[in-house]
């Protein structure tokens, strides 16, 4: 399947996301400032964390086709404006919703104009 980078500041949550994404058949890597854009097909990131949003912007600038999945405790996080196309997962979400969001983000053309909630 795909190589998915994960940016999540809480270690336990990051480990859970890694396990869930592996169950969906993806390879996972921990995302940080040293992440090479060529190393990931998708990024799952915490939308409420400025560092995660900044990393998503850097990745999108380097690779407009990178799939983005933003996880947020609120339905309309202001930090993700301008990052469309992306999938938005409002917390809490199920393992199935995570898998579906990553699949949809990976299948979406980079030219899509709107983010999906």
TrEMBL record:
InterPro entries: CheY-like_superfamily. This is Response regulatory domain-containing protein.
């Amino acid at each position: 399947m795909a190589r998915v980078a994960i940016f999540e500041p809480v270690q336990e949550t990051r480990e859970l996301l890694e396990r869930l994404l592996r169950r969906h058949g993806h390879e996972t890597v921990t995302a940080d400032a040293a992440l090479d854009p060529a190393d990931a097909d998708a990024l799952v990131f915490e939308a409420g964390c400025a560092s995660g949003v900044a990393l998503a912007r850097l990745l999108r600038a380097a690779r407009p086709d990178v799939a983005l999945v933003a996880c947020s405790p609120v339905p309309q996080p202001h930090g993700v404006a301008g990052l469309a196309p992306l999938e938005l997962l409002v917390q809490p979400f199920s393992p199935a919703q995570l898998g579906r969001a990553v699949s949809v983000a990976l299948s979406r053309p980079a030219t899509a104009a709107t983010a999906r909630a």
